[in-house]
Amino acid sequence: MASKKKNGKSKADSKKVNEEILNEPVKEEAEEMTEEVKEETAAEEVISEAPETEEASPKEEKKTKEQEKIEELEDRVKRQLAEFENFRKRTDKEKEQMFETGAKSVLEKILPVVDNFERGLSNIKPEEESDPHVEGMRMIYKQLMTELEKLEVKPIEAVGCEFNPDYHNAIMQVASEEYESGFVAQELQKGYMYRDSVLRHSMVAVVP
Prior knowledge:
The protein is α+β, with helices and mostly antiparallel strands and about 210 residues long. It has helices at about 1-50, 60-120, 130-150; strands spanning about 155, 170-175, 185-190, 190-195, 195-200, 200-205. The protein contains three helices and six strands. It starts with a helix and ends with a strand.
């Protein structure tokens, strides 16, 4: 009876061992499949966590193109404004130069009138000083010179000054005990400046 139980137990153990041997490959395969599933799941999580690349929508692209067009137009307007400003400055300068040329031309024609007034006043005799005509000439001459001064016309200093070809025109030499050599001793015709330019050179006599 004991032998029979022993044989039954041996058979059960053998069956168990056989099942374990047969189930071993299945178990390994199941474990391998489990690992693969875990790896795939981890890969999917990594992909899902990666930041998605944002693609510009058609609306945003249109907005960018419109902004570029606006900037281009603004740049064009700025360039045109700068060109207009340069044109305005150039035109103003040309107008000023034309005015200066015209003014000098008119003033040059007035200077002989001033010369005649001065010659006439210099030849007045002492007894004629109270004559109304003489007084009238003096008043007109004074008014004329006042207006010329307002126009920035002023006489050039000559007598007693060192000769300067920029302002003086020497037409003769004279001996002088009062002035040194190279200085203006006489003024034969008065010269005038208009602002910063010579309107007419002084005609002078210079000490040699």
